[in-house]
Design goal:
about 190 residues, 3-stranded parallel beta sheet, two-stranded antiparallel ribbon, mainly alpha, 8 helices, single chain
């Protein structure tokens, strides 16, 4: 049963304007979903929130297709490696097939894996056939400060290169900078 009461009780309030609803299924169990569940859940969430962010795992299930079909924006996160480029090519095609109406943003970043050789941004973009929209630099110090403080990285390490890159990405995602520079980064996400 998916309704506003269920959503209200299942969500974790992180701040004044940020709520998180996480999957509670054991990872080792196969998840069986009612085919209508994604549409119902997204409908309920849209009644309550201006922005709904869904973190989809890599794959091509019916549920992922439904969520992508409802998206207005798709952010594809990739790593600057040969394997990352191959995945990005496949996922970009999949996202464009499922959500041709969505604005597609390609974002490179994340934790670095020393086992995978990195390739240059220029080579990555050439192989991908388009430019990356954003590159979030790896910053172990800022990530550690965030984890130790138990706060979002843009709050814990607000002047770090990664926080600055995340702000630029957020402005691109939202569509325009409000011009407002007071308050915390997360507080500038206001009802549009």
């Amino acid at each position: 049963r998916i309704d506003s009461l269920f959503i209200e009780r299942a969500m974790e309030k992180i701040g004044e304007r940020l709520f998180v609803l996480g999957a509670e299924e054991p990872l080792q169990d196969e998840m069986v979903l009612d085919p209508s569940a994604p549409d119902i859940l997204l409908h309920e969430l849209r009644q309550k929130f201006d922005w709904v962010v869904v973190d989809l795992p890599r794959g091509a299930t019916l549920t992922q297709r439904q969520v992508l079909a409802a998206a207005t924006h798709v952010v594809l996160v990739c790593e600057l490696s040969l394997a990352g480029m191959r995945d990005a090519i496949r996922m970009q095609a999949f996202a464009q097939e499922c959500a041709p109406q969505a604005k597609l943003l390609l974002l490179a970043g994340g934790a670095e894996d020393g086992r995978r050789p990195k390739i240059s941004r220029a080579d990555f973009e050439r192989g991908l056939g388009r430019k990356l929209d954003h590159v979030i630099p790896h910053d172990a110090k800022a990530a550690a400060a965030s984890a130790n403080a138990g706060k979002p990285l843009p709050v814990a390490a607000r002047s770090s290169k990664v926080a600055i890159a995340l702000r630029r990405f957020a402005v691109d995602l939202v569509g325009a900078d409000t011009g407002r520079r007071t308050g915390r980064f997360w507080q500038r996400w206001k009802k549009g």
